[in-house]
Amino acid sequence: MSQQRLNDILLFALLAVCVVWLVIPFGMAILWSLVDPAAPWTADRLLPPALSFSRWIDMWQNSSLKAALINSYTQAPLAAALSLSLAFPTAYALGRIRFPGREIAKLLVLLPLVVPSYVTAVFFSSLLFQLGLTGWKFGAIVFAHAVLFLPYSIRILIVSFEQVRDDHIEAARDLGAVFWRRWYVAYLPALRPGIFAATLIVFIKSIEMFAIAFIVGSPDIVMIPSLLFASLGQDYVRPNAAVLSLILVVPNILLMLFLERLLKSANPSLSSGKG
Amino acid sequence: MQMTAKAWAKVALLLAPGLGLILALIGTVIYMAVTQSFGYYNLSGESVFSLEHWAEMLDRRLYFRSVQYSLYIGVLSAVFSVALAYPLAIWLRKPFAGSMLIGTLLKAPLLVPGLVAAFLFINVIAYHGIVNQLMEALGIWDGPRRLQNDRYGIAVLILQTWKNMPFALLLLTGAVQGISDDVLDAARDMGAGSFTRFRKIIAPLSLSAMQAALVIIFIGALADFSFQVIAGPTNRQSMSQLMIYFQGHGRWHDAAVVGVTLMVLALIGSAVLAVLARLLVRGERVR
Amino acid sequence: MLRKLLVAAALCVAGAAMASADDVSANEWDQTVAQAREEGRVNWFVWYLRDDLRRFVQPFEKKYGIAVTIPEGTADANAQKLLSERDREPGDIDVFTYGLNNFESLDITALFLPLDFLPEDEGRLASVSGEDGKSYILSFWGNQTGIAYDTSVLAQADLPQTAEDFARFWTEHPGKFGFNYENGGSGPSFYLNLMGAVAGVDMTSAAADGATMQSLQPGYDFFNAHADNYVVTASNADSIIRVSDGELWLVPGWEDHLAGLQNRGEVRKDIEFYIPEFGMSGGSNGVAIPRNAAHPAAAALLVHWLTSPEVQSEFNRVFGTAPMNAASDDSAALVSNTQRSRSTAWPSDELRKPVEEKFIETVILER
């Protein structure tokens, strides 16, 4: 069987899976978001009795959604950038230098992920308050998220640094490339997928992180997860939750497409794969 | 390898902004949590040193059952996510028409907040949800079945895998794409089948990515709260759930005991998973 | 050190507050009102119906020229914020709302200002259902647990009223009754009261000792004997939604919560609410002012306004809550006064803790 034919078959199989994977849940979300407030969608009906955009309009006009979108989508890229910058040296050391205790260091890097939720919420934010970081609340949230999600950026970048090939570095050195040039030629191609993955993960995690954003930010700074937790908690209204969910997913998908284009402008398997 | 003082200094300097910051800030917070489990940092009364909280907790069946259940969810979620992601990553290694679209589609769940995912899922499997309606319409089931909060945590495992498989895919795609064609071609020329190629070349060369994926997913799923509360079995409690239960009742030290257990299990479990993955892969290569 | 800092800060603020609380006179209160106007802003952290409450406080904002900010947050997160910024001076929270039951998890004397400097009001019900709110917390939102039922399948006459009725209902209609054991107090209210009825124990007055635990055993046995015929749900909201979806017929719930979901078009209007004869517990939400509030005078003014007879009548009219001021009009409540008389008090905290824990271990986890 040719590779092309195999791909075609797999493609169809995958499309079928995607229906279950994405189309059903999102299709249901779209239907729920269109339920008219005056006519609840009861279980005995296959489709909502009346459709309207009123929930969308109401959500857009009468909630803090716009402010939250702006805050969250400014905060998350900054947190991702800061987290990656902080992670870079550590990931380089753990990925390229063989030193005793390296495995333990790799394990210790995971600590922020291991801390239980309420401990982060109460003790970590209280530490931030005590350090006096909250004079600039927005900055404090960015910093806190950058630290909390360091495990993702460090561990992902370690993988990338391990993939950098020694012969590339040596070739660059032999050709007399200066430090920066060497980085650009030998390291960057191998690091690209890692940078993409780490940026995306830290970005998404900081968009989703509720506790710190709320405890440090409220009441002055509203962020998306506060709206989400509020609408999915006690006052849970499915159509409103659906509207909010759909609004939140769209910018994320655009961002991913953008990042993918930006960082994979050259095919990494070609740029780093061939010796 | 011999490390000179200068080399050590370089390593220390490099580790400072990342690991150093983690140890300073998160270390302090962990210290607070650990001492809280021994009676300090009481947020609703006097702080007194005491081993009682641990002693009482270790005496409870409630506690052990939640440890057991959380380990079950943690390990299976990590294994399922990675096992599903591997073949997809290998398939997507070399770009073809539509591969980018597929990659994006597969990664989409990453972008859906966990809470939203759980509610979408509950919607689908609800008593009068689309699955029940479909099965009834097809005549497979006589009446609606209660699928919500199933006994074995299958819903939680599905949700965890749904949410985490893309993460594993993201890591593995990068690693698998980094493997040069020469090596794989050479193996193919030597008559190695696709499974042998996976065992002997792909797995060892992407080991680090696999370990990272396994460990990070394990830690997240071990501490699962939102999926468990919404979709999990009502006759089981995850450790986070137990912890929040105690915390909500002002029993800070009990909550801290569960929290510290969670941390210790997460670290030990991560180490064990990483070592197991390496042994498995290395073992294959020796054979 | 944390503790020392905290005590120091607490003493400092308490000292300042005591000064104004020491000589409560009309004049003093006038000064507080003037100061409140000067502060011009108050942050009210409340965990439910925030949209509606923002609308509800508009008359207050207009009357005093004080902006009320109600941030989006859950009960847990509000409490975590309160705790994490307890050493901060000043904090962000001016008025803090929590279920009266939940305040038990906080060190209220260390965290909050005593409220005796508010103008005296005989009618104020500081505590509801035997729970001591002390003078640090005032109840402003009375609510009641009971049972929500689907009128399209059950007539009023069919509603189970006693333990025997429930046993019969469960046997005749397996899988049609559900309750939550966490994420909301309605389920616990149901099983605590029903266990008391089965075992013949008065949960409100029973002592928290081994003898009581012993005599409650028939209650646990009752739930275990019928375990296959009832459903355990995930939360208050999950229960109500599953009744509205037709999956369940009867579930414990909160009257104000049900009304709120109905008003938003999430739950069918033909779901109704009753309190069974063996009684179910009433509760309330309270307001308190953190010691490090940045706008303490405005906070005091808001608390005073929320608990006043007129505003309590208005709460009753708009949300159907049970007024927390004796001088208020309670004609708009969701349940009749006959049924309201079946409202019981929660068991003491010392009793409730071991009973609930045993229920989880021997009933829930054994399913």
From TrEMBL, chain A:
Keyword Zinc in annotation: no
Subcellular location field: Cell inner membrane; Cell membrane
PANTHER family documented for this protein: INNER MEMBRANE ABC TRANSPORTER PERMEASE PROTEIN YDCV
Sorted UniProt keywords: Cell inner membrane, Cell membrane, Membrane, Transmembrane, Transmembrane helix, Transport
Transmembrane segments: 9-35, 76-95, 107-132, 138-161, 182-204, 210-229, 241-259
UniProt entry tagged with the keyword Transmembrane helix: yes
Main localization of the protein described in the UniProt heading: membrane
Membership in a protein family: Belongs to the binding-protein-dependent transport system permease family.
Membrane topology value: Multi-pass membrane protein
Pfam families attached to this UniProt entry: BPD_transp_1 (PF00528)
Highest taxon listed in the record's lineage: Bacteria
Residue ranges occupied by any ABC transmembrane type-1 domain in the UniProt entry: 69-259
Coiled coil: none
This protein's name: ABC transporter permease subunit
From TrEMBL, chain C:
Top-rank taxon: Bacteria
Pfam families linked: SBP_bac_8
Protein's name in the database: Extracellular solute-binding protein
Signal peptide boundaries: 1-19
UniProt keyword list: Periplasm, Signal
Transport listed as a keyword: no
Species annotation: Pseudohoeflea coraliihabitans
InterPro entries named in the record: SBP
Keyword Signal listed: yes
